[in-house]
Amino acid sequence: MLTPQEVVARARSAIGLHISYKIGTGGMNPAYLSPASKEHSCDCSGFYAWAHKVSRKIEHPRYTPYFGEWLYTDAIYRDAKDPHFGFFIEIPKPALGCAIVFPKREGMKYGHVGIVSQLNPLLVIHCSHGNWADGDAILETGPDVFRRFSAIFAWCEVVKKAV
């Protein structure tokens, strides 16, 4: 079980690796030193899983009956909204190392998830196609992309709760 500080440190270690964004890639092997796939790409869910030292492929009886075998944004959001299903619990305000997530909305193909890396001002580490303009899909940014879509904050049970 990681501490919130360890999750943030691991997430930051992927910044500057020039990983490209590709949906459905990355985060398969938590032992790797990078969240990237063999093609050196990753998506937000793969990055999120890797930063928590878990595989994005989930084989757990509490999770798979409701969300399938993959950790992805819509599953994280639904799980947090109804926490008896799996691993996430919605929290009322941001906490270091927590998830910030919005689900797929009408007209969108996918939602988005990131990791709260700083509280004041609020910063988020996330893997996004939109970040690629800077030559790296994984960046630490403000939360603006999440605010546009009424994101929630969620605690992942594989992280030690902050005291």
Question: How would you sum up this structure, described in words?
Answer:
This protein has a single domain, classed as endopeptidase fold (from Nostoc punctiforme) (Alpha-Beta Complex). A hairpin with a 2-residue loop joins strand 5 (112-119) and strand 6 (122-127). The protein is an alpha+beta fold and 163 residues long. The chain has helices at 4-12, 44-51, 64-67, 73-81, 144-147; strands at residues 20-21, 41-42, 88-91, 99-102, 112-119, 122-127, 138-141, 152-156. The model has no long low-confidence stretch (mean pLDDT 88).
Brief synopsis:
With 163 residues, this protein is α+β, with helices and mostly antiparallel strands.
- Share of helix among residues? 10-25%
Structural class by SSE content: alpha+beta
- Beta-strand content: 15-25%
The parts where pLDDT drops under 50 for at least 5 residues are none
Tally of extended strands? 8
CATH domain class name: Alpha Beta
